Amino acid sequence: MTGAKEPLMHIVKRDGVSLGRAMLVRLVALVFALLVCAAIIFGLTGMNPLNVYAGIWDGAVGTNRRMWVTFRDAAILLCVGFAVLPAFRMRFWNVGAEGQVLVGAMASAAIMIYGKNLPSWALYALCPVAGVAAGLIWGVIPAFFKARWNTNETLFTLMLNYIAMQLVSFAIVFWENPRGSNHVGLINSQGKEGWLPSIGTNSYLLPILIVLALMVGLYVYMQFSKQGYEIAVVGESENTAHYAGINVSRVIIRTMAISGGIGGLAGYLLATGVGHTISTGLAGGRGFTAIVVAWLGKLNPFAMLLVAFFLVFMEKGAIQIATQFSLNENASDILTGVILFFILGCEFFINYRIELRQHAREEVKA
Amino acid sequence: MNLIIVFLQKAIAQGIAILYGANGEIVTEKSGNLNLGVPGMMYMGGVAGLMGAFLYENSVENPVPFVGMLIALICALVCSGLGALIYSVLTISLRANQNVTGLALTTFGMGFGNFFGGSLSKLAGGVGQISTQATASAFRAKIPVLSTLPVVGEVLFSYGFLTYLFIVLTVVLSWFLYRTRKGLNLRAVGENAATADAAGVNVTAYKYLATLVGGMLAGLGGLYFVMEYTGGTWVNNGFGDRGWLAIALVIFARWRPLNAIWGSILFGGLYILYLYIPGLDRSMQEIFKALPYVVTIVVLVITSLRKKREDQPPMSLGLAYFREDRG
User: Fold this and answer.
1) Which of A74, A75, B33, B90 is buried most deeply by CB count within 10 Å?
2) Which domain holds residue B141?
């Protein structure tokens, strides 16, 4: 080989990878991530990492109650993940789930507070409707501008998060209890009006069931309905969609209405089924974590379930070891970050392979 | 009059941290990388600088402010640079999704900052506030003579050196982007990497360097906040949402460093406006705090309405470049 120098290696896209192989790569990445985390933990505390991982297990599913909390929180995170899923299919970067969840929670909380004396069936009906409607509006605003003037949606939805937070702060001034505390506290703590009911004695189960039902519904909608197909086409290429006679603006707005509405539903679940309160931190960054969930789950609702569970599992576990070894609880964010870096990086080895230059290989043979 | 002077002073002081982050992000975005990890890198830079200064001040009897300052600067640059390096390796070499990687970096960086910042006081052996007064005094030193001038001195010359360093850096950055060959190359990479590649520009190198420099600038913003604004202490999450405001400022400035200077003062002013308007009750204050974000959205919508080409985001912003993939 003479003439131009061929680079030592180059990168080739794989045509398709078997599921088993892809899973193997991810597993290896995860093992590496846990090793690095173990090194970090050891460096910070000098503890035996194996004990620490046992502590993580204990913190996430060690007792019956902890296990249910982990399940429920995973379901909530998954629900927020579903709030970005339809939008992402359409290549609409909805990073505003945090805000959509917050306004949904705020609307539900408002109904709980002002509708305390309504008959309970009306309260049960109004809370989710208000929550979903609020989230839907919050999602449609950026979609309208995107559809109409192609306004950058990543930045628009990002800004809306903070406006939603200020709206919640605004509402807290009126709702705070006791006065001057700047906290709303438990809403309707006496009669539990509007609280998501328990199934038997289990107060964790209902939100989980709602999210699971949503998962199946969303899967069917995305996979088998005409509208789901339109979303996929718009995501692949807006020009193709135009060509095929799809009204792109309408699909964008409709899909973001669905995304925002699901965000609002997650807010409703948080306000009436988990926190029973409203605060700017109620969404707790789930709107951002949900993006990671959707992306790592390859926009597949069932794979997202696994990712959401894993992330919540690690988070609960890390909080447990933080208290156990009197570390600062932010250690869990560091560990989550490290794991995410590895999992994000490993996708490369699933989608591409590295080839050494041809003659270099021949030289090795000779 | 007095109130206006104080307001301007505070607005500028607020704005500088945002400005550092915004200009870092401008450099990064000009190479086509949308790094949502800016808030994380600002935390990393701030806490690393603080830790460096803290360890130094605790290990010697009479800490020299200037040495502490150098140590803090180096620590901040190295640490935020490392954050940007993680992002670069993942998005540029391994082609991970930029939005997701950036958000992961923010999670990591904020955890990093709050963990070490929060643990420092424990390390010091007390529950009280930790402080690095000597180092902070170097950051806070005002210009002699000039700063004592009435009005002019208060508004223009009452800040620490990082403020002036940054005005200079911003002008240099603007000159680099729009007046040099390398700046042109960088912008070409962000607009259309394949074309830049065909023209012989080393796309990978430009993307790496721009992202690293951008991360370091963001880190300096965090250091400014910790050292000059709060005087060398750490409060968990005290940095607030300034990192996101920095990203908002990038849009507001329409990706131009010089616009970011006055934009940062405006943002700083909007950020604290609620404190200076008489007769606002608490609820209205909260509404006023949303102003910077509302203004950013308005600007975003207007720029998309006007469709002026030079006001748009870099064309390939957010997209990974894969040479073998070009059509």
Assistant:
1) B33
2) 2-325
